[in-house]
Each structure stands twice: as C-alpha cells, then as structure tokens.
Amino acid sequence: xxxxxxxxxxxxxxxxxxxxxxxxxxxxxxxxxxxxxxxxxxxxxxxxxxxxxxxxxxxxxxxxxxxxxxxxxxxxxxxxxxxxxxxxxxxxxxxxxxxxxxxxxxxxxxxxxxxxxxxxxxx
Length: 123
Hints:
about 120 residues; mainly alpha; 4 helices
C-alpha cells in the first residue's frame, strides 16, 4: 500500500559536525579566561563558543606553557602525529618488501653445472 510509508518519520542525525574556530578566536578566548579569571562556561557563553571546546583550548594552552602535567604540548602532539605517519609508511614499505621476497628468483648453486640453465658455461 503506497500510503503506509508516509506516516513514518525520517530519522535525522542529532550529532552536529564539529565546528572549527579561527586561531585568532581561540587565542582571544584563552586570553580572556586567563586575564579575567571568569569561569570558562561564562566566558564561552559570552563568546558564543561551546564551553567544552574552550575548556580544551585552555588546558592545551596551559600544557604549552608548562603549567599542566599529563598533557602533551602542541609541539609534542605534532611530533607524535609525524612519527605515526612515518611508522605507517615504513610498515607499508616492509609489507611490500616481504611480498617481493616470496617471488624473488631462485638462488644460484655454488656447484659448477648445477645453477640455472642460463648460468652454465659452454663446455
């Protein structure tokens, strides 16, 4: 029956895509939290930023200044990211080389006359 499908509601995703904020806004927001001493939630509301986003920025800024332990600095995060990419590339290269080992040519015999057919010297 064609009319049965019309009563169903279409499902819409309730998770929003993560917003990206300009670096200038991030720096200004972090500076505002540190200079005013206001709670992060209040500063975030004034700036129109989600409070958890601002909280993460503040924590990262503290780690970069050496004020927070247990969190990597931005430079360390970039280094880890680069090393992980390099590790993936090296693993891929190793897999390629392992595959080539399986199809390599047979080894030559050290006994005269026992090598491959093209290796024999004319008698």
